[in-house]
Amino acid sequence: MQVPAGAIVVGFDASTSSETALAWALDEADRVGAPVHVVHVLHDPAYGHVIDTVFRDALVEYAEESLAKADSQRQGRQTPYSAEWVAGSPAEVLVAASEQARMVVVGSRGRPSAAPSRPPRPGNCR
After folding, report:
1. Which CATH class is domain 8-105?
2. Can you say how many angstroms the Cα of residue 106 is from the centroid of all Cα atoms in its chain?
3. What is the pTM of this model?
């Protein structure tokens, strides 16, 4: 993970509360002159153990769409900004990011219900 030193790190999953967290972080970054680093975490059980590459590709595509949505919130601000997706445990990834960060900002709720939360389980095929 490439967190700029002193950045305001935002955990972003495209939920309404993460959009609110990002808006607050961008305002705070403008106020204090800090860069913003957005992180979308692909939770390991949903990514690391997926054998089906189509499903894995869908998770990556969702992460990239989420980061594009985050980028669109910048609305022409000149605040230094970076973003990335990382596979792992959301808590562990954000704690690791906090080592270089000025602060970590997160929303109060997880990913939207339309997003895959775990790999599909095989059905009873006969």
Report:
1. alpha beta
2. 10
3. 0.79
